[in-house]
Design brief:
The complex is a heterodimer.
Chain A lengths: L4 E10 L2 E2 L1 H10 L4 E3 L10 E3 L5 H8 L9 H17 L8 E6 L5 H11 L16 H11 L6 E4 L5 H14 L5 E8 L3 H9 L20 E2 L1 E9 L9 E10 L12 H14 L6 E5 L6 H15 L6 E2 L2 H4 L6 H15 L31 E8 L3 E8 L6
Parallel strand pairs in A: 4-8, 5-6, 5-7, 11-12, 11-13
Antiparallel strand pairs in A: 1-2, 1-9, 1-10, 3-4, 7-9, 10-14, 13-14
Chain B lengths: L1 E12 L13 H6 L2 H17 L6 E5 L5 H13 L8 H4 L5 H10 L4 E5 L5 H14 L4 E8 L3 H9 L11 E8 L9 E7 L6 H9 L6 E6 L1 H9 L4 E3 L1 H4 L5 H15 L5 E7 L5 E7 L1
Parallel strand pairs in B: 2-3, 2-4, 7-8, 7-9
Antiparallel strand pairs in B: 1-5, 1-6, 4-5, 6-10, 9-10
Helix pairs in contact in B: 2-5, 8-9
The chains are: A alpha/beta, B alpha/beta.
């Protein structure tokens, strides 16, 4: 059984572009990927972190056959999962390589099209548009396309889904059930979520302002982010970092709202922090959940204060760059966190202007480079009080 | 995978629904909950009560279809109201982890909470996670599977030809799992298998047959698998004639198996071999 789990490959597609180098470049430049929504028509005035490629472009680039119905979630997921696998140069032969994928909308973008036909006349609507509806369909497709052979599953805990997928991947490797796992998440923009968050009144029609006193809500985003995790028993081309801490906890406060004392967030961060056996001073960067809603950011700030006191490590939300990619957020932001740790960067919290009362320390607003850090942390919190924290560190020698 | 899951409490709801007032006292909460949430919450309460446990260290659920009624309700309201003045309640409750979240909320439990949404192996993935959690040192894990058949889903599956060869089904079943035997253990899951997508019925049956010993009953959830196992001289019963067909029917199958082990002294072991339509097959081996 493995003692340690390492990240041997990363893959990402988001509003910042396709592939990891484009993510890094855009994060350094400080330019947002959030634009007025163009993917579909909606009455809502919405800005969103769109991936600037049509489904058809994605399909062609992936070399997938024409004439089949692919959900955008599946296409985005395959781009990033494939990149993570190729980046690791791992040879699957003789190994048990699994896929643990997270998604919250699944094939909803295609189901919406079906229902428009079906509702007025229930004999209508092309049934094949429903094949990809269930969350597991995108995972099965990616698994087959990549020729994987180990454990395969799908997780949906709303916005914390991808962090839970990465956590399960690490646990599965440690238990000896698999040798390597591609873990992360994928979600696409769709009317369902645009209308859902709009009905909750938590969409900012302008650029979102995470951790700002004047924040008005979130921008939605889309994309996918995956890590290729390997056991310390497996040789690999490169070790980016070690998965040194993870924890999931429940806020048990409200189906959608976070508790005023940030209990769930506090317990998740505390659990991961204690497991990683590092000191607060060793954490060089925290990629916070920081959606830009009044409730989340206040709750998360209080939770960080409870855990770190007055010495909160440098932190930022990258939601201003990408929007909130829901079930994919933890995958995308884990890639951003690993890029920070690997390259010595602290990503700026863009769109910030005024400090909020709940947060003693403001987020990092200027890009920091050349930072020598030992560990980095990332948070994802979802509906149902689901809170998950991951910590990566640079202890790269296996025991 | 070899597992060590002692079942300390088991309960479920399928065709006959109880009076939910006995389980969910808050009338407002009860009204807001969709049927699948009510079924699941009540099942989890009954399972905990049977196990005589006040609290748990983790909640892990699995669902193939998710919280369908709320998903459909919100989707339809978007279309019918042209995106205007939508009520967020159904959106809020549409995510598949709503059941796990509601159980946590009602019990005030802040522990690990995860939800698997992987077609016909959703419940088995939840069991696999539960086994990992117990091996990692957790004491009590609440695990369940649930799916609801809405009128729309029923109609759509009908159009796909499903009801020509399958019986309609839905339900929730929850289990209180521990890693240690206790006086009131209702059985132990020693083996759990999620087959590969390319494995054919014969290969699946070979795996299942390896578990055969004196007093083994095969509860099957697939007609082809049932007939192959029968031809090999094994004792089988098609549990889906009772539960109907849905992605987490195997959770109902496990509940039937637990009850059968308690009531039928001639059976030493039950092997549940399931498959939902063309999805992966799963095997759960349970003994006394």
């Amino acid at each position: 059984m493995a003692t340690d789990v390492f990240v041997a490959g990363i893959g990402c597609i988001s509003a910042l572009g396709t592939g990891v180098p484009n993510q890094r470049g855009a994060l350094i430049s400080g330019k947002t990927g959030v634009v007025p929504l163009t993917l579909f028509n909606t009455i809502h005035k919405v800005r969103a972190g769109e991936v600037s490629r049509s489904n058809e472009e994605l399909r062609i680039n992936l070399g997938l056959s024409e004439g089949k119905e692919y959900s955008r979630t599946t296409l985005l997921g395959l781009v990033a999962a494939k990149e993570a696998l190729e980046d690791s140069a791992l040879r699957i032969d003789g190994l048990r390589v699994g896929l643990i994928s997270a998604t919250s909308v699944g094939g909803m973008d295609v189901s919406e099209l079906f229902y428009r036909e079906y509702l007025p006349d229930n004999r209508r609507g092309r049934l094949r548009q429903l094949i990809g509806h269930d969350c597991g369909a995108s995972t099965q497709f990616i698994y087959r396309q990549l020729g994987l052979n180990g454990f395969c599953t799908t997780i949906n805990t709303a916005c914390s889904s991808a962090n839970n997928a990465i956590m399960l991947g690490a646990r599965m490797i440690k238990s000896g059930l698999v040798d390597a796992v591609i873990a992360g998440g994928t979600d696409s923009l769709c009317r369902f979520t645009v209308n859902g968050f709009s009905s909750l009144g938590i969409l900012d029609s302008e650029h979102c302002k995470p951790f700002d006193a004047e924040r008005k809500g979130l921008n939605l985003g889309e994309g996918a982010g995956y890590l290729l995790l390997v056991s310390d028993k497996i040789g690999c081309k490169k070790r980016y970092c070690r998965v040194s801490g993870y924890a999931n906890a429940n806020d048990a406060f409200h189906q959608t709202a976070s508790s005023p004392n940030g209990e769930g967030a506090f317990l998740a961060m505390k659990g991961a922090f204690e497991m990683s056996k590092i000191t607060a001073g060793e954490i060089g960067y925290i990629n916070v959940h920081g959606t830009g809603t009044q409730n989340n950011d206040a709750s998360e700030a209080i939770a960080m204060h409870r855990l770190f006191g007055d010495s909160i490590p440098p932190f930022s939300s990258t939601k201003g760059y990408t929007g909130h990619a829901l079930g994919a957020a933890g995958g995308i932001e884990s890639v951003f966190t690993i890029l920070a740790l690997e390259g010595g960067y602290v990503w700026p919290n863009i769109n910030f202007s005024s400090k909020m009362d709940e947060c003693v320390h403001p987020p990092q607003t200027k890009l920091l480079t050349g930072i020598n850090m030992h560990a980095a942390m990332t948070n994802s919190f979802g509906f149902g009080g689901n809170c998950t924290t991951l910590i990566f560190d640079k202890k790269l020698d296996s025991v | 995978m070899k597992t060590n899951l002692y079942i300390k409490g088991a309960a479920g709801i399928s065709s006959i629904e109880p009076d939910y007032k006995d389980f969910i006292q808050d009338a407002g909460l009860r009204r807001r909950m969709s049927r699948v949430i009510r079924m699941s919450v009540a099942s989890s309460i009954m399972a905990m009560s049977e196990a005589n446990e006040k609290s748990f260290d983790a909640i892990v659920t699995g669902t193939g279809w998710g919280c369908l009624a709320d998903t459909e309700k919100f989707l339809i309201s978007i279309i019918n109201n042209d995106e205007r003045l939508l009520n967020p309640s159904s959106f809020i409750q549409s995510t598949s982890n709503t059941v796990g979240a509601q159980i946590a909320l009602m019990s005030g439990d802040k522990c690990y909470n995860n939800t698997y949404v992987h077609g016909s192996s959703s419940f088995e993935c939840a069991l696999a996670d539960a086994d990992l959690l117990l091996k990692e040192g957790k004491r009590v894990v609440l695990t369940g599977g649930f799916d609801e058949l809405t009128p729309t889903k029923k109609h759509l599956l009908g159009r796909m030809g499903m009801w020509r060869s399958h019986k309609e089904g839905e339900g929730a079943a929850f289990f209180v799992l521990t890693s240690e035997q206790c006086d009131n253990s209702r059985g132990i899951i020693k083996h759990l298998e999620i087959c590969g997508i390319d494995e054919n019925s014969n290969e699946i049956c070979n795996k299942a047959e390896l578990m055969n010993e004196a007093g083994t009953l095969y509860l099957t959830g697939d007609k082809e698998i049932d007939s192959i196992l029968q031809k090999r001289g094994l004792k089988t019963e098609d549990y889906k004639t009772l539960t109907g067909e849905f992605p987490t029917a195997s959770a109902q199958g496990l509940l039937l198996a637990v009850n059968r082990l308690s009531s039928d002294a001639d059976i030493a072991k039950i092997v549940i071999v399931s498959r939902y339509v063309k999805d992966v097959a799963t095997i759960i081996e349970i003994s006394r």
